Amino acid sequence: MSLRAEAPPETRVRRFGRSQRWVHRTTAALMGVCVLTAAFLYIPEFAELVGRRELVVRVHEWSGLALPLPALAGLASRHFRADLGFLNRFGPHDRIWLRAALRRDKRRASRPAGKFNAGQKIYAAWIAGATLVMLGTGLLMWFTHLTPIQWRTSATFVHDWLALTIGIVLAGHIGMALGDPEARRGLRTGTVSREWAEREHSLWRH
Q1: Which residues pair with 14 in a beta bridge?
Q2: Which of 18, 47, 57, 62 has its CA 20 to 30 A from that of 94?
Q3: 192 forms bridges with which residues in the sheet?
Q4: What is the per-residue pLDDT across 170-196, written as a single tens digit (0 to 9) for each?
């Protein structure tokens, strides 16, 4: 049993609804399948453990095709669309946050943030763009009879190296999450402590 008491209900604030949590969990699961199957396909030591390579290829392809679907389904929720709006706005306070992050200045006043900080906004934009590029290059590699060999060669090069970059960025993302239990609790339960919200997201009008 944990000795750390949960914050009383009145000191907790709603951060995410069901739609945002569902989209995040489903996208994370599909991304995890893509990364895991890619590892079994490209790392020799892992590839030796796979008896049915063709099955792994198919799982990798279909999980990649399905990756954008949770976000597209989430557009039906006004709460999810509102969060996309927050993620898509980059204001003066975000530049202040970034400068403080680059200086490794951890003082509360030096890192103002709304519902999402500048780092989260940049990560969301980058991973969304990378996913679309991976989807496009993957389709070029899949439907080999529809494209010239030069396109397929270029698509394979981009797909492989971007996959490695995504793996590194995801590892950093997971590492940041592991270092912030309250942020993880917000994604798991939908609520965070008011003290955490005011400390980490001082401009968020919750």
Answers
A1: 191
A2: 18
A3: 13
A4: 999 999 999 999 999 999 999 999 999
Alpha helix segments (H runs only) across the chain: 18-42, 44-47, 53-66, 69-74, 78-87, 92-102, 118-142, 149-178, 181-189, 194-200
> What are the pLDDT digits (tens) for 58-116?
999 999 999 999 999 999 999 999 999 999 999 999 999 999 998 888 777 788 999 99
Between 92-102 and 118-142, two packed helices, what is the crossing angle to 10 degrees? Answer: 90
Tokens for 94, please give them: 């975000």
User: Dmax of the chain from CA atoms?
Assistant: 62
Cα–Cα dist 21/151, whole Å = 37
Tokens 């969301």 correspond to 124
Q: Is the Cβ–Cβ distance between 192 and 183 less than 8 Å?
A: yes
